[in-house]
Design brief:
- This protein has about 675 residues and is an alpha/beta fold.
- It has 22 helices and 23 strands.
- Strands 1, 2, 3, 4, 5, 6 and 7 form a 7-stranded mixed β-sheet that branches.
- The protein starts with a helix and ends with a strand.
Length: about 675
């Protein structure tokens, strides 16, 4: 361009030269423009063709598939069902109750199905009235601080946003909760209230099960009044006595490729040999135990600190999250069950659902051996529920034992009292029942069908990912106690974790695990003060919190006051993480360390007593510093006592009445300034 432009500024250039150059210039410009337009048109033509062709097929595929797969209405119509029992279940109990209710339906000439709300489109509830004598039942557990269970989260979100007309829907709700928690049965109450708001018709009152009392009895009491209400509503009658109907059929594999047999995997076959992220409840990561040390210096208990290596797993966690581990049952218990029932535990078998339309093809991964099922898949240590006793009764050859089992499974007051004393309070598991009833010898396949699934155990993570990105730490106490029958019962997970040998080859150092996100979070601003209250193993998440605050301080961030209230029995016995806490205090990260040794003096001293002692400082941090409060540990006594102490402090220094103080603390909870991570 510069070469072309220069002559035009020369006054000595002739007119003829100028005209010739212009002609040449125009012809070149014309060619350039025509080429450009042609090129653009060609590009646009082909680009437009692609845009038209590509989206059509995928759109049709993605729209069609979920509608066909997720309609429980179509499934009910196809299989002749009129009762659907949805369950929100975290530990399997709500699912178990849902299955029992679905099974009950046949006694009244009705047909039921249990359903996981995660697998279906719940907006179809508005169409349930298309089915004659239809009813939706919801067995909803509450998890954590009033939260829905993982599998009910989508249903909960839909209920909150829905403006559906459910006027044709008939429903009933049974909630599973625990009275020691602040938000007792919040999920059951919400579902019951919200369905009514959307126009649905409640045909029986909300049931509230309390796991702190006797959840099984609460369910039976509700259930025995629920079915008469259903009969009255639909004008049907019971067709006869409750009968034992097998849900699964046994298939024994005599000639099977062992590469096709499950050996403890939770989902995909061979997933433990060929690990693929993402890792979750159905696909746990096999973490190597790199450290397993005893924390306490004395006493009868065994408190331990474990470290799990999550390198190369792509697992991410934050301080306050929970780690879930899948334990294994004690091999001696498994062997004893096999011996009593005269079974070859290494027999490879499958239990196949007799209902071919069911989404649940097997009660646990199949094919597998009885040994694997009893070790990794079935709960053999908790007292069995009444429905298990009822089904097993037919296999007792002694009339007295058979009658006793049936009585405990009945809804009669005498039966309930017997079940409570002989099974629940005596903590008799299935092995103890088989030992104490010599004539009771059920087929092992039916026993495997009846026993509930062995569940993952959750632990508050005792580390910060900022400091330990490739490691998750656990703080736990082994559970071991003598029952009223003189038997020694051991906690499944804690004793299994205790046996893990660091950095050894093979399964002796591997732990199947995944991370569950939590709302237990440090304040967004590091400068916000924190008051942490965690006696015993409740200190776990606070070790992670303090590690993180130390890391933030090292990064040059302004870190607010970090106050810990910790408690244990004896200073020289079970003072957990003593050295670490002393170091954090010396470094100035832990600004206050208040420790209550409950049994080192005549009068017991607990964390709430230290809070009262420091009440002025606590109120100042809370009122002026806008501190966040965190409570971790026992829900039944400690968390409640601590909360009552905060009511007193707020009432005294905030010049409030008791109801006003309670309201103040509840508002702190709503704003996320008072968080709980508790268990009972």
């Amino acid at each position: 361009l510069t070469a072309m432009g220069e002559p035009s500024t020369d006054p000595t250039m002739s007119a003829a030269d100028s005209t010739a150059q212009q002609d040449s210039l125009f012809s070149m410009t014309d060619v350039f423009l025509i080429s450009l337009i042609t090129g653009l048109f060609t590009y646009w033509f082909f680009f437009r063709k692609k845009k038209e062709e590509v989206p059509e097929l995928p759109k049709m595929q993605t729209v069609a598939a979920p509608v066909r797969d997720s309609s429980f209405i179509e499934k009910m119509k196809k299989t002749g069902r009129n009762i659907v029992v949805f369950y929100g279940s975290q530990t399997g109990t709500a699912e178990e109750f849902a299955n029992r209710l679905a099974k009950d339906a046949h006694r009244y000439g009705l047909r039921g199905m249990a359903a996981d709300p995660e697998e279906y489109d719940l907006s179809d509830l508005s169409r349930l009235s298309e089915i004659d004598k239809s009813l939706a039942v919801f067995c909803m557990a509450t998890y954590g601080e009033g939260d829905p269970t993982d599998n009910a989260q989508d249903f909960y979100d839909w209920l909150q946003e829905a403006d559906a007309d459910l006027s044709g829907l008939r429903f009933a709700v049974f909630g599973l909760g625990n009275k020691t928690y602040e938000h007792f049965n919040a999920m059951g109450k919400y579902v019951d209230k919200r369905l009514e708001e959307l126009g649905a018709q409640r045909i029986f009152e909300l049931g509230l099960g309390d796991d702190d009392g006797n959840l099984e009895e609460d369910f039976i009491t509700w259930r025995e009044q629920f079915w008469p209400a259903v009969c009255e509503h639909f004008g049907v009658e019971a067709t006869g006595e409750e009968s034992s109907i097998r849900q699964y059929e046994l298939v024994v594999h005599t000639d099977v490729n062992m590469n096709k047999v499950y050996t403890g995997e939770m989902g995909r076959l061979k997933s433990y040999e060929n690990q693929k992220p993402p890792f979750d409840a159905k696909n746990p990561f096999l973490a190597q135990v790199t450290e397993n040390r005893k924390l306490n210096e004395g006493g009868e208990r065994h408190l331990m600190h474990l470290e799990l290596d999550i390198s190369n797993s792509k697992i991410r966690y934050e301080s306050g999250d929970h780690v879930a581990v899948y334990p294994a049952n004690d091999s001696s218990l498994v062997n004893q069950i096999g011996e009593i029932l005269g079974t070859d535990l290494d027999t490879v078998m499958s239990l196949n659902n007799l209902d071919e339309e069911s989404n649940k093809k097997h009660p646990f991964p199949c094919p597998t051996s009885y040994r694997t099922a009893l070790t990794y898949y079935l709960d053999i240590t908790n007292p069995p529920r009444t429905n298990v006793l009822y089904e097993l009764a037919q296999y007792a050859s002694d009339a007295g034992e058979q009658e006793r089992l049936r009585k405990m499974a009945s809804s009669a007051a005498e039966g309930k009292a017997l079940y409570l004393s002989w099974v629940v309070e005596a903590r008799r598991n299935i092995l103890a029942i088989l030992q104490d009833m010599p004539s009771l010898r059920p087929p092992i396949d039916h026993l495997c069908e009846l026993l509930p699934r062995l569940q993952a155990r959750y632990y508050s993570i005792a580390s910060s990912s900022k400091v330990h990105p490739n490691s998750i730490h656990i703080c736990a106490v082994t559970v071991e106690y003598e029952t009223k029958t003189g038997r020694l019962n051991k906690g499944v997970a804690t004793n299994w974790l205790k046996s893990k040998v660091p950095a050894q080859q093979g399964s002796s150092s591997l732990v199947p695990m995944y991370v569950r996100k939590s709302q237990f979070r440090l304040p967004f601003k590091p400068s916000t003060p924190v008051i942490m209250i965690g006696p015993g193993t409740g200190i776990a998440p606070f070790i992670g919190f303090i590690q993180e605050r130390a890391w933030l301080k090292q990064q040059g961030k302004e870190v607010g006051e970090t106050v810990l209230y910790y408690g244990c029995r004896h200073e020289h016995e079970d003072y957990l993480y003593r050295e670490e806490l002393a170091r954090f205090q010396k470094e100035g990260v832990l600004t206050q360390l208040n420790v209550a040794f409950s049994r080192d003096q005549a009068e017991k001293v607990y964390v709430q007593h230290l809070l009262k002692k420091n009440k002025e400082n606590v109120w100042k941090l809370l009122n002026e510093g806008m501190a966040h409060i965190y409570v971790c540990g026992d829900a039944r006594n400690m968390a409640r006592d601590v909360q009552n102490t905060f009511y007193e402090i707020v009432s005294e220094f905030g010049n409030m009445s008791q109801p006003q103080a309670v309201d103040y603390v509840k508002k702190l909870m709503t704003k996320g300034r008072y968080s709980l991570d508790v268990w009972s």
